[in-house]
Amino acid sequence: MKFVFAILIAVAAAPAAAQNWVALLKNTPAERFDEEDLRLFMDNARKVLAEGKENETSSWENPKTRARGDVTLLRIFESKGLPCKEVRVHNEAQGRKNTSKLALCQVEGKWRLLSASQLKK
Questions:
Q1: Is the pTM of this model over 0.90?
Q2: Strand-pair partners of 72
Q3: Which residues contact 89 (CB under 8 A, 6 or more apart)?
Q4: Is 75 in a helix, a strand, or coil?
Q5: 119: pLDDT confidence band, cut at 50, 70 and 90?
Q6: Exposure letters 41-63 (e unless 16+ CB within 10 A, then b)
Q7: How far apart are CA 86 and CA 71, in angstroms?
Q8: What are phi and psi of 5, to 5 degrees?
Q9: CA 62 – CA 7 distance, rounded (Å)
């Protein structure tokens, strides 16, 4: 679990406090990901953020663990002059399923998670 948190925080570099990540991941399939699941998920998410087009879905699956999911790019927008993307993330692992909607903006080359209050500003 600590590995999952470290990777997600490093990749998304969220401005939110670490406890927000705990709430985000609690009781989700990500708690059950092994390292390969996590790599496949993160590679897929990076691909969508880098190359995705609106309303396109990109899927991943690990045949060994049967974990799978997809990321859909819902919209591309700007916030405070920064390029941003809203995505829907769906993952399944070991009987758990979860779908979340996230907004991220690119700051200094890294995607950072926006909170709901930041998104409204």
A1: no
A2: 57, 88
A3: 45, 69, 70, 71, 99, 100, 101, 102
A4: strand
A5: low
A6: bbebbeebbeebeeeeebebebe
A7: 10
A8: -60, -45
A9: 18
